[in-house]
UniProtKB/TrEMBL annotation:
Protein name listed in UniProt: Transcription repressor NadR
Helix-turn-helix type domain sequence ranges: 7-60
Protein origin, superkingdom: Bacteria
Keywords from the named record: Metal-binding, Nickel
Binding site for Ni(2+): 75, 83, 142, 144
GO molecular function: metal ion binding
Keyword Metal-binding: yes
Gene3D superfamilies noted in UniProt: 3H domain, Winged helix-like DNA-binding domain superfamily/Winged helix DNA-binding domain
Keyword Metal-binding: yes
Residue span(s) of domain 3H: 72-167
Length: 171
């Protein structure tokens, strides 16, 4: 029997290489375990930061291109602009915002914010009532995928988010 850690690594590899969603039953057959064991594995993989989407056809892994990193953050609505300005001022791009909702699973919105002008546009939409921050569905906890030209810039983004008190540290 395959060890839990090996099986989870295998699940990631299968999802990474599959052009279509893979059902829990199919993954279970692959590893000689029940669908329920796969459901638990997927939950653990998500908790470790893997972007796995559950669909009606199975599981799909969202793959990040280039230099990117996902950050879990927490702040008030009044700090949205501060957070986003800090990121774009370092030359990084805020690709998206997503939450892990207990009932609905992963909910994601593309942002593609590259400049202060983009930040100002988003803030104006929120203030006008056109949009509401996604983070408000999860007691302000949310995630951003940030892309940059280098890992060093991503390290700087991590540092500034920590310094601002927005970064939720992984345990």
């Amino acid at each position: 029997m395959i060890e839990n850690k090996e099986r989870r690594a295998g699940i990631i590899e299968i999802l990474k290489n599959s052009p279509k969603a893979i059902s829990g039953g199919e993954l279970g057959k692959n590893f000689g375990v029940s669908r329920q064991v796969i459901v638990q594995d997927i939950a653990l993989l998500k908790a470790k930061g893997h972007l796995i989407v559950s669909t009606n056809r199975g599981y799909k892994l969202l793959i990040e291109e280039g230099h990117s990193r996902t950050f879990k953050v927490l702040h008030s609505d009044n700090d949205i602009a501060r957070e986003l300005y800090a990121i774009v001022d370092l030359g990084a791009e805020v690709k998206d915002v997503f939450i892990r909702h207990r009932a609905y699973g992963l909910i994601k919105a593309d942002l593609n914010i590259k400049s202060r002008r983009d930040v100002d546009k988003l803030i104006a939409e929120i203030k006008s009532g056109v949009s509401s921050p996604l983070k408000n569905l999860t007691k302000s906890y949310h995630y951003h995928t940030i892309s940059a030209n280098s890992e060093e810039v991503l390290d700087e983004v991590e540092d500034i988010l920590r310094d601002l008190g927005f970064l939720v540290e992984k345990h």
